[in-house]
Amino acid sequence: MKRQGHTLALGLRENLAQFTLLVAVNALVGGTLGQERTVLPLLATDVFHLNLYTSSLTYILAFGLAKAAANYAAGTLSDRYGRKPVLVAGWLIALPVPVLLIYGPSWGWIVAANLVLGISQGLTWSTTVVMKMDLVGPDRRGAAMGLNEAAGYLGLAGTALATGYIAATYGLRPGPFLLGAAYIALGLGLSALFVRETRSHAHLEAKSQTRHGLGNLSTREVFTLTSFRDKSLSAVSQAGLVNNLNDGLAWGLFPVLFSAAGLSLGQIGILAAVYPAVWGAGQLATGALSDRWGRKGLIVSGMLTQAVALGIVATGSTFNLWLLAMILLGAGTAMVYPTLLAAIGDVAHPAWRARSVGIYRLWRDGGFAVGAVVSGLVADAFGVPAAVAVVAALTAASGGVVALRMRANDHINS
């Protein structure tokens, strides 16, 4: 099959230039989210003087709901119109976010900014995932997802650290959000001018695939299969939800917990950066390892490691102990994150894989919203450590569901 004078081929080496470009684009997607990780929880308490955790976490609730819906839409739209238009649209939607964050006179403006950011992130991040799956084919899917997620979360971590420094030096606004504005401009330019469409690669792979017998399932059938009917897909979907439930907790409440314990803004920035940095860098190894060792063991081990880390956060009170917890939390998440995505790609037929990825990511990023509500209510009633302990228990239970329900060898047959 040819396109614009080039023969289409599946594989990382065969598509290295486009794959590398998409890795860079996803680093910018992650950095756009990272502009908020250190600063927004402190903006809620120090600038807008929000006392209830359930109130201050409304921005995570808005972000999670919007991103979950956008993930779902991204899969359907990219199958219908192509991947690149969805990616470019996601960047265009992000343009007003830094303006809202910088000039917002009330907390409602910040919530609105996160609603818009959630839509943008759902479209851009989901599309880069699908495009990389399209390019590499089945053989190195775990490695591809590891590279994709590593780029995104290293971008997030570096930006969280940088914005912590900027905020400590120049104040909470506007400095940290100017960095996000630069990311959005660069991401839009690269996506519009240099990224190429990859849907034809998925069509090429689909010709040789017969997973689940048929490749022409309706969106409703794909939703039911991904969410409930297929044991592996449904186990992965619930694990994704719980993973982002605890990430929402870390985003919204950890900086507040650390600040209340007397940590400096610089120390909070370090802790906010270490977790996604270990998460991001670790995925460079764990994605590829899941191709060799299988997906299930890494997912179960990762969820349990996260639960242990959250237990340490709940009982700790010092910078060094919390630093250890952030390293463990990042390591556990690195074991899980690219492996869950690769597991979806293992089972889903290329003809409906983009929709299945979108549905998985709908459940996964719905975890932000669930986490905001659950952790906010528990924190208001019993304190932040109690909220962290509850989420630790939920994370351990999720790992148990994967151990009992997920098939162990889907990747072998993909």
Would you write up a description of this structure?
This protein is mainly α. Helix content is 81%, strand content 1%. It is built from 17 helices and two strands. The model has no long low-confidence stretch (mean pLDDT 88).
Question: What can be said about this structure in brief?
Answer:
With 414 residues, the chain is mainly alpha-helical.
Average pLDDT metric = 88
Number of helices, counting only DSSP H or I runs of 4 residues or more: 17
Q: Assign the CATH architecture.
A: Up-down Bundle
Tell me the β content: under 5%
Strand order of the largest sheet: 1-2
- The 3D shape can be described as globular
- Total E-strand runs: 2
CATH superfamily: MFS general substrate transporter like domains
Helix content: over 70%
Order of helices and strands: EEHHHHHHHHHHHHHHHHH
Total number of domains: 1
Broad structural category: mainly alpha
Radius of gyration: 20 Å
- How many angstroms does the end-to-end distance come to? 22 Å
CATH topology: Growth Hormone, Chain: A
Q: Assign the CATH class.
A: Mainly Alpha
Q: Biggest sheet: strands, sense, closure?
A: 2 strands, antiparallel
Note poorly predicted spans.
none
